[in-house]
C-alpha cells in the first residue's frame, strides 16, 4: 500500500474508522484493537502499543474500503437512540439471565475440569447488575435530555457513562480470559458450547453498544 493510503488510516482514531467504514469493526475485533472504550486513540498509536504491523492492518482496512458501499447519511439522534435501546439494551436484558443460568450449570457439572470457567457466573451477575443500572440511567435521564437536543450541563452525565463504559470493558476482558476467548475444550457438552456462543454474542454486542454511544451518539452533543 502506498504511504498516502496508509496515512489516510494511520492518523485517524479507531472510533472514527469503525464508525465510518463497514467491516472495520470486525478487523479491529480480530486484532484486539479496542475501538469502543479506546476509540480515541489513532490507529498508529494503537498498533504501536500492541506491537503490531501497522501496514498489515491498514492493508485490511483498505481492502474493506474497496468493498464498502457508500456510508449512509447519519441517523437522526432519536432514531439512533431507538436503535441503541432496541438493538442493545433489550438484547442484554433478554440474554444475560440465560447466560448466568448456563454458566452456573457448567461450573457445577464440570467443576473438576481444568478449563471450567470458575467465577464466570458471578461475574456475569455483576455485569447484569451494573448494566441494568447503567441502562436505566441512560433511558430515564440521559437519553431524554439528548432527545430534547441536549443540555448546557450534558457533558457531566455523558462523562459518567463513558467512565462506566470503561468498567464494562474491564469486565469484558475478564470474561474473555475466563472462557479462553470463548473457546470450549475438546468434548465440551452442548451446554458449555451454548454458553460460549452466547458469551461471544454478548461480548460482540457490548463492544458495538459502547462504540455506538462513545463514538457516534455522544460526540454529537459534546463536540
Structural class: mainly alpha
Q: Judging from the principal axes of the Cα atoms, what is the shape?
A: globular
Poorly predicted parts? 1-6
Quote the beta fraction: under 5%
> Could you give the count of β-strands?
0
What can you tell me about this protein's structure?
72% of the residues lie in helices and 0% in strands. It is mainly alpha-helical and 223 residues long. It starts with a helix and ends with a helix. Mean pLDDT is 88; it is low at 1-6.
Q: In a nutshell, what does this entry contain?
A:
This protein has 223 residues and is mainly α. It has helices spanning 3-10, 14-20, 24-30, 43-50, 54-67, 77-109, 120-147, 155-178, 190-217, 219-222. Mean pLDDT is 88; it is low at 1-6.
Features:
223 residues, mainly alpha, disordered N terminus
Secondary structure elements and pairings:
Layout: H1 3-10, H2 14-20, H3 24-30, H4 43-50, H5 54-67, H6 77-109, H7 120-147, H8 155-178, H9 190-217, H10 219-222
